[in-house]
Each structure stands twice: as C-alpha cells, then as structure tokens.
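Protocol step 4 of 6: structure prediction from sequence.
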Amino acid sequence: MQATDYPTNHHTPAGNQFIDRMLRAAKLEPGVYEEVEADESSFGQAMGVVVLSSIAAGIGTFTTGGFGGLLLGTIAALLGWYVWAFITFFVGTKFLPEAQTSADQGQMLRTIGFSSSPGLLRIFGIIPVVGLIIQLAASIWMLVAMVIAVRQALDYTSTGRAIGVCLIGWLIQFVVIAILFALVGIVPGT
C-alpha cells in the first residue's frame, strides 16, 4: 500500500509533525508508517524517537540500578534496537520476502524507528511495583507497533509473516545482547 491509500484526517503545523507522527504511530495507524517510509526527510525524526525511547528505558531502570542502571539501560535499549532493526531488515528482505517486498534500509529504519513511540512510557519504570507492569505493557505495545511497521515497510500482505520476522529479529537480538553483556561481565538485575 502507499501512503496515499490511507486517509489523513489531520492538519498539523510543521513544528508539531514529529509529535503527531509519534502519536499516530503509538495509535498503530498503518498510514503513518507508509508516510514515514516514503518521506526520506523523516529519518532524523525516527532516530529521535529511538533515542527518546531508549532514554526513557534508562530512566525507568534508575530505581534498581541508579545512575549506572540509567546509563546501561539507555545504551542497552539503543544497541538492542539497532541489532533488532538490522536483523529484522535482513530476515524480512532476504529470507522471508513476499513477491512484492521492496524496501531499503532507510525505509525500514524510518518505519521501525517510529514503532518505538510507545517506548516513551518505559520512563514510568521508575515507579515502584507498577512501573514494571507499565514497562512490560510498553514493550508489548512496541512489538505490536513494530509488526505493523514491518508489514508496511516490506509491503507484506501477511501480518503473520511480519510477526514471524519481528519475533526472529527479537530472539536474535536478545541472544546478541546477552552475549555482549556476558563478555563485559554485566549481569542485568544485579
């Protein structure tokens, strides 16, 4: 589908476009993913979402890890996102493409960058007890948003295929991050 295939019932001033896109991405609107896929100038915005979401994840770990947890949580979230994005692009375009799949790395990074929008809620991980529930909910929400972003960016007709590609990418990312942490002697949660 093309960005023009989705109705755009919003009229946003240029200064608010970033926030508007983040909100629409969090609402799981397929049209916003098509929009940023086509808009090469949205790369900076997409990376801004990833950075903000990663900082929110770091802040969310502050109560359990202090400043070290904040720094480690932010770096781990950024690194994890990058590995996940790369693996997902590779699996989705090389191993599990559909006949009409056509995407470059920029298109993929822009769409899945915006799928990190719900990750801003991870900042509430700083709240004892309820914070863990909010972080879990935000992570699931981000996964659902990423499935939609991947489906749109790779022009999949099958949501199931997008789910599979995202899960494969997530599992590989999890293993890579765990290995990297082990190599530098970091055990999360300690």
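Step 5 (inspection) to follow. The chain has one domain: 16-183.
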